[in-house]
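Protocol step 4 of 6: structure prediction from sequence.
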Amino acid sequence: MEIFRAPRVTLIARPEFVEPEHLRVQWQGDSSPGERLAEFAGRICYMSQHNPANRSTAEYLENIKKQGHGSVLEHAVYVLLVEGISRSCSHELVRHRAGFGYSQLSQRYVDESHAAFVMPPAILGDAKLESEWEREVADAQAAYVRAVDGLMERYAWIADKVHRRKMAREAARSVLPNATEVKIVVSGNARAWRTMLELRCGEGAELEIRRMAIACLRALVREAPALFSDFEIYLADDRQEAARVTYHKV
């Protein structure tokens, strides 16, 4: 039985910016395609492609965030594969709707006989609590396997094996805990990501989704620092990482 003690976040798609020949920007400094796309969109509003202030992309986007003109950030979409989070955490994540798209592992179709589980951050480091928790999720997984076997036998008269497996798994999954690990593909534009990160990286957020949000933040900062560099990661009073942002809900 695999136990996740931290999420795994992988960037799997980024914007591709194709600059039009007739509206070339006088770029300053290095930048990623998503950052240039946001700058290009902003400059269209004022037809300032000639860059009169000679700003680098990072400086231009810093001013965009400062002024709160977040609409131009919506053009840059980033897709992350998030693994090692619980179904409880994913259900919190998918509450963020505007600007996001989700594709999540289906327990109805996927056999969870060898599912992984996610240990809550609050339990980590306490040997007694960890041992008891592992025993409980192992018992739940064993109950799932017994339920699937019993349901497959009960509905043996159904000729379509695929349909029979779905019937068995959709009922048996009811005994699995919220801690069952899920994999989810999350697409979001930079503005939507910023809003989610501001809310979920804060000290008031539930610990597991805060841990996941911090991992997402690190992946996005590596990819497009000019869009996310005003987030500051720090160690909160509860000894868990949190993050604060300079420009709120741009």
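Step 5 (inspection) to follow. Residues 127-154 form the longest helix (28 residues).
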